[in-house]
Specification:
The structure holds 2 protein chains of 2 kinds. Chain A is α+β, with helices and mostly antiparallel strands. Chain A is 32% helix and 29% strand. Chain B has a single domain (10-173), classed as Rna Polymerase Sigma Factor, Chain: A (Orthogonal Bundle). Classes of the chains: A alpha+beta, B mainly alpha.
Chain lengths: 310, 179
C-alpha cells in the first residue's frame, strides 16, 4: 500500500488509516462537549431529548442566534449558560473566545453588528479577544468591562462584587462616570453600588493593597494617606486614578507623591484638574499614550472627569 | 489591516504573523483560527483531552503577550508549538510528575467505538517522541503532511519520515485492529 494517503489524503485510502481517522475524530479540537454526561437511563434521556428538541425548535424560531458557539453549536441570544461542575468554552469566529470555569453563570446579550455583549452573573470567565478595541463588553452586577485588548480574567462573587485581572492588553472597568483603566499585570475590584475601585499592579505591597481595599470600600473616606505613603514608582497607576477621583487637599497630597515618583508632571495642572495635565501624567507612566484611548472613546473624552469623581 | 482569506499558505501565515506582531488583532485572530488544530494536537499528545482544551487559551494568551519578541515571522508556527510544549511540561510539573498521561482516563461514553479510540490515542502517546505529535496532527486533527510541515516548521521530508515510521510502529502496536 502506498504512503500517499498517509501523506496528503490523496490516492487510494488506506483502510487502517481511514479507520483510525474515523475513531479518533472524536478527540479532534471541539469535536465534542466537555464534562460528564449522563450514561444511564438511556430511554428516559432519549425521551427528554425529544421534548427538549421540540421545545428548542420552538424557542429557536423566536430567538436569534448569536455568533457564540459551544463545541460548534451556536448559542441563542438571551441564553444563559450554567456550567455546574464542568467548564465550558465559548467561541466567536474571528472575534475571540471565553472560557467559563465550573459553577459559573453567563448570559449572551443582544449586541449590534460587529460587537458582542455578555453578562457574567456568577463565577469566573477567561476572555481572549482579538476583535477591535471596545467591541466586546461584559456586564457584571456592579460594573461593565470594556475590552481594549486582549486577555483577562473576570470573577463575580456571590455578594455581586467583582475582580478583574488583566494578562495582556488593557481593559476598562466602568460604572456610570467612574472608570478604571487596567493594564496587563494589574487587578481591580468592583463593588455593588460603589463601582470600580482603584487598580493596582499584582506586584504591589500588601500595605498598598490593604489601603486600596479600605479606600474602595469606604468610598474614599479611609485609606488615602496609607496609599500615598506606601506607593512606589510602579504604583503610579493607582495614584493617577486617585488624582482624578479626589479634590482639594486630598488631591494635593496625591499629586505631591505622584510628582515625587514621576518626574516631569504638571503638578499645578493636576491640582486644578486640567485635562491636558492628566493626559500628560498618563503618558509619563510609560503604559501607552493617552492618544490610544481616544481611538475608542466617545467625544465625551477619554478620562473620568474630575468634577464627577467622588 | 491585513485582508483575511481562506487560502492557507505559509506566505499568508507569515504576513499574518507580521501584522499580529505590529498589533493587528484581527490578524492574531486569523492565526488562532489557522493554528488551533496544531496547538490542540500538540497539547493532546501530552495531556488529557479535557485539559488540552483548557490549556489552548493559555497558549494563545502567552503567544499574544510575547509576540513582540518574535524576531522571525517565518518561525511563528514552530515558536507557537514550543509554547504549547512548554505549557504541557508545566502541566506535568505542577502535578509533581506523579501522573502519567497514559494512566489518565479520557472522558467519553463507553461504546465499543470509544474504547477503540482510547486505545488508538494511548498507542500514539506511547510511540517514540519524534513520531507522536506528527501522527496526532495527522490522525486526530486531520491535517495533511504538507499542512503539518507548514504549521510546525518541520521540513516536509522530516514530516514524511515521521508519519511513515510512526504509522508502522502504530500498526504493530494496534495489531491490525483497524483494518
Amino acid at each position: 500500500m502506498s504512503d500517499q494517503y498517509l501523506w496528503d489524503r490523496t490516492g487510494e485510502p488506506d483502510p487502517e488509516i481511514a479507520g483510525l481517522e474515523t475513531v479518533l475524530a472524536e478527540y479532534r479540537y471541539s469535536a465534542r462537549p466537555k464534562g460528564p454526561r449522563l450514561r444511564n437511563f438511556k430511554l428516559l434521556a432519549a425521551a427528554a431529548c425529544l421534548v427538549l428538541f421540540a421545545l428548542a425548535a420552538i424557542w429557536l424560531q423566536r430567538k436569534p442566534l448569536s455568533d457564540w458557539r459551544i463545541a460548534g453549536k451556536r448559542i441563542v441570544v438571551g441564553q444563559t449558560i450554567d456550567t455546574g461542575s464542568s467548564s465550558e468554552k465559548l467561541e466567536a469566529p474571528f472575534f475571540g473566545e471565553v472560557s467559563l470555569d465550573s459553577n459559573s453563570r453567563l448570559q449572551v446579550l443582544p449586541a449590534s453588528a460587529g460587537n458582542q455583549r455578555l453578562a457574567l452573573r456568577r463565577g469566573t470567565m477567561h476572555a481572549l479577544i482579538w476583535a477591535p478595541p471596545a467591541s466586546f463588553q461584559v456586564e457584571t452586577p456592579s460594573a461593565q468591562t470594556i475590552d481594549l485588548g486582549c486577555a483577562y480574567t473576570l470573577t463575580v462573587l456571590p455578594d455581586d462584587s467583582g475582580l478583574l485581572s488583566v494578562q495582556a492588553g488593557w481593559v476598562a472597568f466602568q460604572n456610570g462616570a467612574i472608570e478604571s483603566f487596567i493594564p496587563a499585570g494589574a487587578v481591580c475590584r468592583t463593588r455593588p453600588r460603589l463601582g470600580p475601585g482603584l487598580p493596582y499592579f499584582e506586584s504591589a505591597s500588601q500595605t498598598l493593597r490593604d489601603a486600596v481595599a479600605r479606600y474602595d470600600s469606604t468610598s474614599g473616606r479611609e485609606g488615602l494617606s496609607a496609599i500615598v505613603s506606601s506607593a512606589r514608582k510602579h504604583d503610579a497607576l493607582t495614584l493617577w486614578h486617585l488624582v482624578v477621583r479626589t479634590k482639594g487637599d486630598d488631591r494635593g497630597l496625591v499629586v505631591q507623591r505622584f510628582a515625587a515618583l514621576v518626574p516631569g508632571i504638571d503638578a499645578s495642572g493636576l491640582n486644578s484638574g486640567s485635562g491636558s495635565a492628566i493626559d500628560q501624567a498618563w503618558n509619563l507612566l510609560g503604559l501607552g499614550g493617552a492618544d490610544w484611548w481616544r481611538m475608542w472613546k466617545s467625544s465625551a473624552g477619554p478620562w473620568p472627569a474630575a468634577e464627577t469623581a467622588k | 489591516m491585513i485582508a483575511l482569506t481562506p487560502f492557507h499558505s505559509q506566505a499568508a501565515d507569515v504576513s499574518l504573523a507580521r501584522a499580529a506582531r505590529e498589533g493587528d488583532r484581527a490578524a492574531f485572530g486569523a492565526l488562532y483560527e489557522r493554528y488551533k488544530p496544531m496547538v490542540h494536537g500538540i497539547l493532546l499528545t501530552h495531556v488529557p483531552y479535557s485539559d488540552a482544551e483548557d490549556l489552548m487559551q493559555t497558549v494563545f494568551i502567552q503567544a499574544m503577550q510575547r509576540l513582540a519578541s518574535l524576531r522571525e515571522a517565518e518561525a511563528f508556527g514552530g515558536w507557537l508549538a514550543a509554547i504549547a510544549r512548554n505549557l504541557a511540561s508545566d502541566y506535568h510539573r505542577q502535578r509533581k510528575n506523579l501522573v502519567d498521561i497514559n494512566e489518565l482516563p479520557e472522558p467519553r461514553s463507553r461504546t465499543g467505538h470509544a474504547y477503540e479510540a482510547e486505545a488508538a490515542l494511548d498507542a500514539i502517546r506511547r510511540l517514540p517522541e519524534a513520531y507522536r505529535e506528527t501522527l496526532m496532527l495527522r490522525l486526530v486533527e486531520g491535517m495533511t503532511g504538507p499542512e503539518i510541515a507548514s504549521r510546525t516548521g518541520l521540513t516536509p521530508d522530516s514530516v514524511r519520515v515521521n508519519l511513515c515510521r510512526g504509522m508502522k510502529l502504530l500498526r504493530a502496536q494496534l495489531g491490525g485492529n483497524h483494518e
